Amino acid sequence: MRFGAQPWSQATDWPGLRDVALDAERAGWDAVYTWDHLLAIQGPWRQPIFEGWAVLSAWAALTSRIRIGLMVGANTFRNPGHTAKLATTLDHISNGRAILAIGGAWFEREHEAHGIDFGSGFGERLDRLDESVMLIRRLLDGETIDHAGRFYTFKDAVHAPRPIQAHLPILIGGSGPKKTLRTVAAHGDAWNTSGTPEEFAAKDAILVAHCTDVGRDPRLIERSVSFPIIVRDDRSEAARALEALLAHNGVDEITGAPILLGSPGEIAAELRPYRELGMVEVVVRMPAPYDAETIERIGEVRAALDALP
User: What is the pLDDT of residues 86-113, one digit of tens each?
Assistant: First the structure.
């Protein structure tokens, strides 16, 4: 199982956000992700926050091995041609380490603040995402596109240079059963979700059914799960560390995902059911200021998980 760090880009400064990626690479993490938001999404929205694609470009230039992407990009912020060009440029800066991660967008306040079209509802945004991802895939693959769709119009659109990766992966975040998971089935190379093992299993069954409908092998889609992890030999110490991090971000709790606290062995035991269900990557949510012990000890978690039958 791979491990990706997801440092929150709010309530921090650039040296902190820069160094967490360098520390993660040195400690053996497989990927580093950040948000794509214009306003803080945890706690008070007026907190400082950095722009996602600019952060990725800096990380790409500073690192040499670790994979890099958003978790996840807001489709509403950009035309799909712009998004494809950003991902390709990142792939060249990183020498082939880019991940294009995208979702339908959900935070209405940042759209309202900046006059960005939020659409008429969640269903429309997911329809827009489906059309967008289809176009992005075709651009990344080198097609010349003429397209007049419900949301986007392209005329003789083609991109050069192509990405360094022969097939730059598209990761789609979200778990909507009717639309998001169908988009994953049709166009995604990877899927990120959250929840308990039982919740994941139910969502995955829906994804497999959509794959059958669109004629795609579900084994071609990597599954990843996202939740907070704090590594300490004593679980109560881990809980205190998490509480301090949340207080720094003006947050009382994190809802919607399990929180894994404790020793490497305890965390590995909690990850084992996800591995058995086909998860290949854990994306660890990291509030600022980023927990150095968790970053340094992720190799112990990996070793403990590998030791389990």
Answer: 999 999 999 999 999 999 999 999 999 9
Distance CA 159, CA 137 (A): 12
pLDDT at 274 over 80: yes
The answer to whether 64 and 83 have CB atoms below 8 angstroms apart is no
- Give 203-245 pLDDT, tens digit per residue: 999 999 999 999 999 999 999 999 999 999 999 999 999 999 9
Backbone conformation region of residue 262, classed left if phi is above 0, alpha if psi is from -120 to 50, else beta: left
What's the CATH fold of domain 2-307? TIM Barrel (3.20.20)
- For helices 264-276 and 292-307, what crossing angle results, to 10°? 60
